């Protein structure tokens, strides 16, 4: 098998394919794959893969609530006028996919973006937008104003604190608030001190604005948490939401040794805090609950659940005593006296649902289910749609899906949840969650083992945590094997008659530093409930997908290496490059199909090293995660071009 372990870029290129175009057989025959029958393709555009109206933060400025969009393009801020009860203003924020932080100084709104991390000023009277600061970070995670009119921004991934003075235009980088961590997750500023919630290993830093001194004031009993996630000042008391236990820390800023910790039952994240006088209100996720306590209380009181499964990332009071809160699709007003909720009408020509970057795809009969932000989009597979596209909303993000037996099985972030939806349905059901004691949060792969009636879901651990898990749903409960791949996350799963193949990732929870350099591949035996073998078949650090084709196991790495292994002998048969990025694979007979974000390629799988062929180029895909191809199992593929879903018919 001469050269069987060589890794070489061998994609045979063709030009970009327009919608409806057919790639000639001759072009495919010229690709040089001696084992392949020539394949032609006809591409049809099915329209936006997923469309949503999604808001990530907001701030009240006088009689307006300003909302900031995220994960949809173009990125905008929009003002809801409380008197006119409608959106009256919008402004475009250029060059960024979304906004995390927002606050105001006078009539100017300041927003911080992600990828790239920038700070913008929006004049709410003229709607002029000005970039005022390059944060030199991937994410400007939060933005808060101080009483003296300065803007402070906390960043990821180096946990820095920036200060911007709108009066002079001067920017100051105050450096890392924690030299060993990645997030300033939230902050709040006084005239003298900036309090920074740190993650992904929980910390709480008091930064002295005059001296630059940093003091970590997080109590010792909270050191094993992941985030000081939400910060708020209630008079002389600092109120901090702690993740992933939804605890509330209340610290007397005059003497930080004086504090209380309030427990929140049956929830995981504190996502919004506000106060009036000595009364503090906060919201939790995933339940969407609203709690209240007075400073000095030892336990909170449940007020209600304004919007189930909601994430209230910012909330405050109106002059009439009602609460306002930012929701994913807009905002709500909540009357504390009547316990009634009013959804704000966010309809506007500039704020119609907008294409978002898809997270996952699933072929389910006559439809494609597209995972996105807070729900899934359902699109007809036909060029002339058999039904109108519709959205099924729910809390969370479907990171991977598979259809089997008329049911779509979903692995949902956060909290490592398993949801199902009838393939022809319009509602999801939460079936189970991985036990919180396992500290898992983000599903990486979901598949059904039809021989045994099992659902296999791999997960990565919570922020700052180690060791992902294999989780097996047997119809009654999840059984979890955390750390089954030593020092790695289980990134991909593939069932076999007697067990399951596991592909690893050197990345553990976000905010951790890998301790290994090569992804592991293992076989978990159902009978012994242990690993039968463990190998390192690739130089790559993440095995994003695995497929068993006959007696050959094929794996795809994140950096674009396709490899084949004989699972009986664990011999690596071949390794080839298929592009700059590796994605999830589709299989038709003995062929595997994939995309690297720009090109759709195919390989015929045998024990001999193949030459991949390009079926389409110039796709310019925009994924929120791993590129993906799905198939009907016969002659049709589905993937994306830009933000649109495309159908690829093979001939």
TrEMBL record:
Keywords: Signal. The keyword Signal applies. It comes from the Bacteria. Residues 1-29 form the signal peptide. InterPro entries: TAT_signal, WD40/YVTN_repeat-like_dom_sf. The keyword NADP does not apply. This is PQQ-binding-like beta-propeller repeat protein. It comes from Micromonospora globbae.
